Amino acid sequence: MQRTTPTTTTTVRAWSGSAANMLAFILLMAATMAALGESSLKPDALSAAAKGTKWAVLVAGSNGYENFRHQADVCHAYQILKKNGMKDENIIVFMYNDIAHNSENPTPGIIINKPGGPDVYKGVPKDYTGDSTTAANLYAVLLGNKTALTGGSGKVLRSGPNDNVFIFYSDHGSPGVIGMPVGDNVYATDLTKVLKAMRVKKIYKSMVIYVEACEAGSLFQGLLPNNINIYATTASNPVENSYGYYCPGDYDHPDVSKYGTCLGDLYSISWMEDSDVNNLASETLKQQYNAVKKRTTMSHVMQYGYSGISRDFLSTYMGENLKSASSRVESIQSTSSSSAPTSRILFASQRDANLRYYQHKARKAPKGSPQSAKAHESLSVEIFKRQEEDRKINLIVNFLLGSTKSSMAFNTVRPAGQALVDDWDCFKSLVSTYEQRCGHLSTYGRKYTGVMANLCNLKVNKEQFDRASLQAC
Fold this sequence. Notes:
Elements: H1 9-17, H2 19-35, H3 43-51, E1 54-60, H4 68-83, E2 91-94, H5 135-142, E3 164-170, E4 173-174, E5 177-178, E6 186-187, H6 188-200, E7 206-212, E8 230-234, E9 243-245, H7 254-259, E10 264-265, H8 266-277, H9 285-295, E11 302-305, H10 315-318, H11 322-339, E12 348-349, H12 353-364, H13 370-401, H14 407-411, H15 424-438, H16 449-457, H17 462-472
Parallel strand pairs: 1-2, 1-3, 3-7, 7-8
Antiparallel strand pairs: 4-5, 5-6, 8-11, 9-10, 9-12
């Protein structure tokens, strides 16, 4: 993921350094507001409230044209909710918004999520874009805390104990972490605290969370309780990559070659294309989970939390528009048949999608042209950055454990049902220390957060890790 900093560097550091304090403040404010109790409602308002409202939070956690697919996923998700009757006032969108009008986009102002597919960008609310796409703002939105926001539209969840909430998150992940375009990452333990606080504050009746990311299962395994009415599914288990879809390769569909980057992600495409062609009022979450699991052949789709929710119909969380259902299915099936790739559909590990993007640019640029020289230089830089991250992490681990025990840091996998790490403060401090001493972890390098978790479980502390990082970097 391309880590973007706001215009003023000092401001960015303040955001990044104060994320833990900001989360604590947001949680304190949420608890205080809950303690004040609900305001009185008139009888007619009470009747309407008892029926409940559907809310959604859609998050694209990356930026940069090479990460086109994450914003495309989120835009497609918005179109599904909108076509099924959800109102913009109940849909909150986080996306950096640098793709639609990017100079590399061959169709300015248009984003597609499949070859030959429709424009999914049109009409998408731009609630939190650019510098407002931060973890702190995400927490504030989820907790309904407008006073904790910095920038953005000001929309937050205004849901209550009779309302259902759907969250879809598409991004690069790593063990225990999922990204945001600006500032600090979202750590699994912090996300869990927010979800539990939402339950205490009675922000939802039931909640469904879909996560597209590498090692996405690590966000919930051993952390998400099964008694707070949340059901989550993930693109991958805690120790594997998820996969981009409709990606560039040697034999491309014309659209894939034209855009030069993955247009979607396999898990995300699977649940959304399933939603496109099925009646959400007659398909359950469990049925969709099984369909997505069957189609997502490159990773293990997982489920966490309270499985009883999986018996609910999709329409309980994503809306229902029976009036347009038949025409919608006909339209999408027609589009699918006319745009089906005549060449093979290519996957790319999310870890390697950036590399695929630069390889495609280098291969397609006219030989001997300035574009070719620039593309090959970018590819060389990407390869060098990967090699450097491998070298630094290996040196750090060898300094700390010695060559004979280094495999304990790289290969240890925790038992099913057990959280990634025992001491989350240690884990966060090691990630922070590495990035201070050795530079921000790239999309590729973020796989090493699992190594840092294992080091914490082996009782390596921040001071030891800091000394090793200074030697390696």
